Amino acid sequence: MKKLVLLGGGYGNMRLLLRLLPNNLPLDTEITLIDRAPFHSLKTEFYALAAGTSTDKEVRVAFPEHDRLKKVYGEVVRVDRDEKVVYLEDGHVVEYDDLVIGLGCEDKYHGVPGAAENTYSIQTIAKSRSTFEKLCGLAPGSTVAIVGAGLSGIELASELRESRADLNIKLFDRSQRILRDFPEKLSNYIKSWFEKHDVEVIAQSNITRVEPNLLYNHDQVIEADAIVWTAGVQPVKIVREMEVEKDKFDRPIVTQYFNLPSDEHIYVIGDCASSELPPTAQLAEEQAERVVKVLKMRWSGGTLPETMPDIKLKGFMGSLGKKQGFVYLADTTVTGRIARLMKSGLLWMYKYQNHNS
């Protein structure tokens, strides 16, 4: 049997499974999915898990069941491209003919001393659980500092406000205004929500050092009972250490077919693949759609198209607690209750689609 091995059960590889199973897989091919957890985690919802407004079960989706899908659970430590094998931490060795690396990303600390040791994270389900325990166990009136006002920081701050009305929440933003690359209408809506709900946004911040319960912003020292880092991501360590050509963010460079230029049997998708577009679940899924087409053509001995169509992202959605939200779609901004319903609907559709695969 030919072996297609998928590293990581994230959004990209879930889309691959959805498209290849049950009947798009050649009869001589089987799939092995390797992940550290026995379920797919909805990473876009980890902020709600950390804030205590969603349960662990609500942010998980079961992997599909199929005769030719084998699941292996463990931590990937190395890919040997010469031998075409993947090594796991427990000594397990998995052979592959084609490999899709979708291992995602981890926090990037930008060389800030003490940031890695003294902050909480929402990058993995396990880390989000620890963050939940810390945040929801804080004494009344405690101060929570959230470093980074991108989508994750905004959603965590607003959801935490809904969960714990008694906490002092400070959100540190490097820019002059929130989501500075998007229309001012969107920034103003989010800013006014934070003002109304008493979340302090500290603009033009520059965190230079983190100590236990202390944050250094420029020359100012700020006390906090918990510090959560949401200020940037990088590929996971195993991908950063791969001896392949990478971009300035340490992400492997891929061809338009999403394989390594030096190896057409290794594909990289999602947050750990080089791309001009921002890392999102939507991007990982679109990349997976293209990898499915390429795999099917290569398996059947077909000729690949000279140029693959560009990926165009539809926009993004964010929530401000469970009742309000914002959507930026086709250069149009939608805010308020309708935007929140759109986001909830999308999540429901995603769960339904993957539950029935």
Your description of this structure?
This protein is of the alpha/beta class and 357 residues long. The protein has helices at residues 11-20, 46-51, 115-118, 125-136, 151-163, 184-196, 237-240, 281-299, 337-355, and strands at residues 2-7, 29-35, 40-41, 60-61, 69-73, 76-80, 85-88, 93-95, 98-101, 105-107, 143-147, 168-172, 199-202, 207-211, 214-217, 220-223, 226-229, 233-235, 259-260, 263-268, 315-320, 324-329, 332-336. α1 (11-20) packs parallel to α8. The protein starts with a strand and ends with a helix.
3D shape: globular
User: From the helix content, strand content and strand pairing, which structural class follows?
Assistant: alpha/beta
Largest beta sheet: what is the strand line-up?
A: 5-2-1-9-20-19
Task: Indicate the mean pLDDT.
Answer: 95
Tally of DSSP β-strands: 23
Number of helices: 9
Please give the largest β-sheet: 6 strands, mixed
User: Which consecutive residue ranges, at least 5 long each, have pLDDT under 50?
Assistant: none
